[in-house]
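INTERNAL AUDIT FORM
Audit reference: QA-55
Scope: verify that the stored structure record matches its stored sequence.
Auditor: D.O.
Record contents follow.
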Amino acid sequence: MQPISRNQRQVLKLSSLTQVEEDRIVHLWAERRRGLSVTEMTELCGLVKRLLMRSRLPPEYADPQARADLIHDFIVQKIILNQHSSEAGPLASVHVLHGYLKNFIKDQYRDAARNATQSLDENTGDEDADADAGESEVADSRLTTSQHQLLVEAGIDLGNAVESARRFVAMLEAAEKAYLALNTCSDDEDQYPISAIADRLRLGSSYHYKAKQLGITGSKGGFYQGYEKTRIGQWLVSVGAQISHEWQRELMILLVILCHQVLEQCQEDCA
């Protein structure tokens, strides 16, 4: 068994709650719509933060500070700002909040990819007119501040990444787009197995090899081992990313951008 890291110890220390504290969250949550006092709201937010610090989240939130920033945004948007208008009912258990947080992350990913593409579309009407201003607006797209900053610090231009993703997806075969749209880029409940997609498109026995070439089926050594040899891996490298564990947060943002392009182009093909 691997030893617990310093970061993991910090998360556990911050997040442990007693049964009394869990019951207090349930009570304060139920009272939100009538309006909590400043003291009560402060208490609720503090307890929820400690609870959610131990949620099982995507790898880019393994760092305690990144996790804390995410939870802060969740608390502000989903607890403080909508306490009177929220349609969320009473909590059957405090652990329901872990699911709420994961849905919040999915919404952020979708919004980031959608708004990045929209921002690019708004600025490509006249490629010769004030290119620098257009690039600035793309850089100021609706990615969250932390996501945008990650790409900037990594030396990745958002506008270039979105346009590169658009070109990459346009060159994919119909089957490859289907693999991504119906499997990799779909929500868990809507995902089709690769084999089912192959049967649906009558692709024969070569589907697994093509999926592996594309980069959407696993291989020995894990995600980072040799992934740069796949087509998606080559695209990630082409926009300035590195295929390594240290780049997992940046890779996730780029894959979200890629998925948005896949879903958008698939919708256009079916229209």
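Auditor finding: record pair retrieved intact. The CA atoms of residues 194 and 208 lie 8 Å apart.
Action required: none
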